[in-house]
Structures are given as C-alpha cells and as structure tokens.
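Researcher: Going back to the complex we discussed earlier. I've cleaned up the inputs and rechecked each line, so this should be the final set. Can you rerun the prediction on the complete assembly and write out the structure?
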Amino acid sequence: MRSMAERQAFPLTPWTAALIAMLIMLAVLFLTPTVGVLLSSIKTTRAIALGDLWSIPGELFLGNYAEVLSNPAVHRYFVNTVIVTVPATAASTALGVLAGYVFAKLPFRGASILFLAIVAGMFFPPQVILVPLFRLFNGVGLIDTLWPIFLVHTALGIPICTLLMRNFFATVPNALREAAILEGASEWQVLTRVAIPLALPALAVLATLQFTWIWNDFLWPLIFTQSDEKRTIMIGIVNLKGQYTVAWGVQGALSLIASLPTLVIFLFFQRYFIKGMTMGAVKG
Amino acid sequence: MERENRFWRVVLLFLPLSVFAVFVVWPLFSSFWYSFTDWNGFNPDYAFVGLDNYARIWTDRLFYGAIINTAMWMVAAIVLPTLLGLALALLLDRQIRGARIFKTIFYLPICLSAIVVGQIWTWIYQPDWGLLNAIISFVAGEPFTHAWLARPGSALWSVIVAWSWQQTGLSMVIYLAGLTAIPSDLLEVCDIEGATPWQRIRRVVVPLLIPSTIVVIALSVINSLKGFDILYIMTGGGPFHSSDTLAMHMYNESFKKYLMGYGSAISVVLFLIALVIIGFYFRQLKRIDEIYG
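Model: Rerun complete. Updated structure for the full complex:
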C-alpha cells in the first residue's frame, strides 16, 4: 500500500504540463453547467432571453432570489422536506445500527444469506415496489400525507445502513465486548456504551449519505402526495417550472436554494461522504 | 450465554427486519400478485386476469421501445462514466498541486439531485440561448438552433450525457480507491525497467484495475436501470415516447393510465433484469474478495 505523500512529486516536464492543461480543461467542462445556473440566478429573464446567460454580469441582480424566498409555497416545500428528511435519516441510521451490530457481533446460522438479501435491496429500482406500496398507503388513508415518504425512506435506507454499520462494527475488537460482558454489562449496554460511541465517524458517513439521498428524492413524494401543501422541494421545482415558465432566472435561483443543504453537507463532510459512497459500492 | 445471545438477536433485529419486511419485501412479492390482476388504482376490488398483462407486454410497442432505450442507456452507462472516470482517476492519481480541488469539482455533481441536474442541462440544450447551440453556432459561424430535447433522434442521448456528467464522479472515486491499492514497488519496477508512462498505464495499472472496473460497470448499469427522475424533468419520456425507459414506462402505465396491474407486470420484468445484474455483481464481488482479500 502506498499513500499520496510517498509518491514522487512530478517535475514540471512537457508531459506533466499537458496533463495539468487537460485537467483544467476537463474541470472547466465539468463546472460549466453549475456555473450556468449560478449565472442565470443573478440575471434578469430579459437578459437570458437575449442570449446573455453565459457572460459574467456587470452587476448582481438579486430579484430572482427575492422572488423565490418570498414565495410561501417555497417555504412549505422546505418545511415538508425537512420534516421527512431529518427523521427518516435518523430512523434508518438507528435501524442500521441495530441490524449491523447483530450481523457483526452476534452471528447466527443463515446470517450471511439474510445479510446479503438485505443488502441486495439497495440495488433494485424502486419501481418494483411502487404499486403495492401505493395500494397499502391508499388503503390506510395515508396518501397525501408525509408519513409514507418517511416510512419508505426509513425502510429503503436499511440496506446501506446495515451494510456500513456491520462493516464498521466488525472492526471493533471482540475482546472489548467480552470484557464488558464479563464486567456484567448487558448486550444493550455494550451496544450503547461501547459500540455506538466508537461508531461516531461511521454514523457521520451514514447521516450525510442518507440526508443527501432523501433530500434529493423525487419519486416517492411524486407518488405519495397530491396536494401542493404536502409536496417536497424537488417536486416544488417541477411545479414552479409551470408557474415561472420563462422566468429562467427564478428557476435557477430555486434550484440553487434547493441544493444548498446538500451542497453544504457535501463541502463540509466530503471525506465522510466519499468514504460512504465507495464503501457502499465496493464492500457489498 | 447462547440463550442470552439468542434473546438479543431477536430483540435487536426485530424492528429493522419488520420495517424492511413490511415496506420492501412484502411489496416486492405483492408486485408479482398484482401483475396477474386488473387493479386500476382506485377501486378496492380487482379481478384476477391470469397472464393477460404478460400477454399484453408482448404486443406493447411502447414496451419494446422502452426495453431498447434502457439497453442503449446501459451501454452508454458502461462507456461514458467508466471511461471518463478512469481517465480522471489516472490523471489525478499523482501529486499535482490542487488535486483535491479537482476531485471536488468532478465529484460535486453527485450531491445534486437528478431534478436539479436535469434542470441545468435543459438549459444547456435550450435551442435559442443554450450553451451547446451557442458553441456550435460560434464554431460553424452560422446560427444553429437544434432542439436537442424535443427531437426523437437526440432526446435520449441528450439525457444520457447529462446523467453521465453526474455519474462520472462516482466512477472516478471508485477508481481512485482501486489505484491506492496498487503496490508502489510494482510501479518503481516499471520506472527501473524503463517503461514509458503509457506502457505503465496500459500494461500494469489498467489490468490491476479490473476489480474496480467490475464495480464501476455494475454500478453504472444498475443505476441506469433506475433512470427516471432526470428523464421526468428533461423529456418526460418524450417526444413520442422516444426516450422512455422501463422505469418511465412502468410509471406511465401505472400512474398516468392507472393500469396498475399492467404496471406491476412491467415492474416484474424490471425486477428480473435487476436480479440477473445484481446476482452477477455479487458473484464478481465475492471473486474479487477471494483474489484480493
């Protein structure tokens, strides 16, 4: 294994210079779409329609943001999204801790098959459970409330949360648990007093991943809610697209505001986020 | 001791397993059941129609179109994010000043929602002032106003490019993780033996990245099967169903036409395709584990 620091620093040769030039070009290409929204959000619709979207504006136009932030519908979308995202993130992480702990520390016959079956759940397209869930929630009168979104996200978070927590708890030495149990601690005390305090970094990984996915989700609120009062922010973007048909600047400002929570989390917890993504992908 | 362990297993697993069973496993199996019915989404009652829904799949031209589009999406998913992600990882796997900033830039799109990504790219493809047409007009020297998303020939591919833009960062990160696992002695030997950088990449690095490649390709294919949100906002499956995928077709039949029984039959097909890919993926992962520990 080698680390970044051990690697040789490249001397500046034409070869490295070309590489860096290529990287900068690709980075510009990758940033362009995001910069485009940013630019649109600080320009008037007139300027955009005249084909002036891609230039750096001389002055900052904040009317689009004012328009979005003063729209009561946007407030509602935000509140609804928070009401769903925060509890569902907490609940799925908690359930993953419980299941992951058993799979790591209390293995039983058939555990690996059960574990595999749960983990497989994270790879299936959500469409395969759409109709029965719609019928279930319709039958109990929960359609057009936020409950089904919360419940389904909690359930669909279990595979990734169980996977990452099992992998984490597997790295906690068994001797720790045995020592605590010899001291007279119950399994529950081992979990809450020993294992969970050690697992805080893993919990941070999960919380950032889950928060981002649930916040960004579109399909479940689309299926389970109907009235504008219950819509979440991603549906709100699509709905307001009709209201602001050609007000591209307003749409851009709304998209940015809607992405702000996940952008902030990403920029601050990038390391955790990426770790979770790669672990979830590779350590199946 | 073992009795206590058994007690705690049951207590700790009860909640996660029951939530998972009720909201994931049970609906999965019910989908099979509903695929044999004519439930319309409103009536509590439905009739059992046997294999009618599956017979209908055979004659549904839209279904064929959706299958072909999904397959094209998968092929593009193998080529675009995989190759680009590999190239970026190889470029960034060295001590370049600012490598971390570059990584952040390439990875950033993954934290955006598909809806926002779709919105952004809708503007790039906008016929009158979109960036793509602006560049083409500039290069060609004459006005170019192709409506990328409104033409059956280009709609699907335009969405796939936008989607790849978002997925590439994920592939890059997995390749970067794979690259750190390559022993540095091996690369030093290359230098001592006088291998050119290109030879080193082609003959040593890329072959050693095969496990990462399997993961990247499997993930891209699986994610392409889920292609829905970004299509919904960019084209809605149109024009004339030219960009429908299976996931989109299933949604349309179930929630636009309220043919929930037929939609369930499509979801069963979707499930079976996913099952094959996931089974293959898990087997390869096991093999990777055996080889590389």
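Model: Worth noting: Chain A is about 75% helix and 0% strand.
Researcher: Good, that matches what I expected from the previous run.
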